[in-house]
Amino acid sequence: MKLVIAATGASGAIYFQRLLAKLDPAQHEVHVVLSAYAHQVFREELGSWSVPEGYRVHGDKTMQVPFVSGSAHFDAMVVVPCSMGTLGRIAAGTADSTVLRAADVFLKERRRLILVPRETPWNLIHARNVVSVMEAGAVVLPASPSFYSHPATLADLADTVVSRILALLGLPDPGAFRWAEPE
């Protein structure tokens, strides 16, 4: 599978970190883009952290990457975390950064685009922008962790959201919570 995994300046760096930890760059071609604000938030939330080995990392101010063109086939793009500002710019069709241009291409080519906002509460503008991107074909997966599995750590809690992302990509997550069959 050919994937683009992007992060923007919303809180929730742990979701991005855990997603990359669960993907295998030896099995999938994974391109990574972090916005300038994502770098700031990651430093605040994770300290000194870097993208693991094997991922193809790109800047957010270049159009010299294959996934910003509709003629290069990619299977899916995930923006996690996705700031409401980024979601709004995607809804408006702006494409003045690598992340925004790639999202625009994924929508116009009818490819899977998964946006994972963490913002709460929403205002009416946020809600309208969410409706706009969903009408355009994006999947909006709010970063709302679940507690069914009784997570013991922050990583366990974040993984409840990451498992949903992987499921939407059609990828297995062997560590995902499974409901016990009723007796």
Structure summarized in a few sentences:
Helix content is 38%, strand content 14%.
Label this structure with key terms.
single chain, 183 residues, alpha/beta, Rossmann fold, six-stranded parallel sheet, 6 helices, 38% helix
Would you mind describing this structure in some detail?
The protein is α/β, with parallel strands linked by helices. It has one domain: Flavin prenyltransferase-like (Rossmann fold), CATH 3.40.50.1950. Helices cover 38% and strands 14% of the residues. It has helices at residues 13-22, 36-46, 84-92, 98-108, 124-135, 154-169, and strands at residues 2-7, 29-34, 56-58, 76-79, 112-115, 139-140. The chain has a six-stranded parallel sheet with strand order 3-2-1-4-5-6, with helices on both faces. Helix 5 links the parallel strand 5 (112-115) and strand 6. Helix 1 (13-22) crosses helix 6. The mean pLDDT is 93.
Topology readout:
Layout: E1 2-7, H1 13-22, E2 29-34, H2 36-46, E3 56-58, E4 76-79, H3 84-92, H4 98-108, E5 112-115, H5 124-135, E6 139-140, H6 154-169
Parallel strand pairs: 1-2, 1-4, 2-3, 4-5, 5-6
Helix pairs in contact: 1-6, 3-5
- Helix coverage percent of residues? 25-40%
* Helix/strand order: EHEHEEHHEHEH
Domain count, please report it. Answer: 1
The pLDDT mean sits at 93
Which ranges are low-confidence, i.e. pLDDT below 50, for 5 or more consecutive residues?
none
> What do we call the CATH topology?
Rossmann fold
Count the DSSP helices.
6
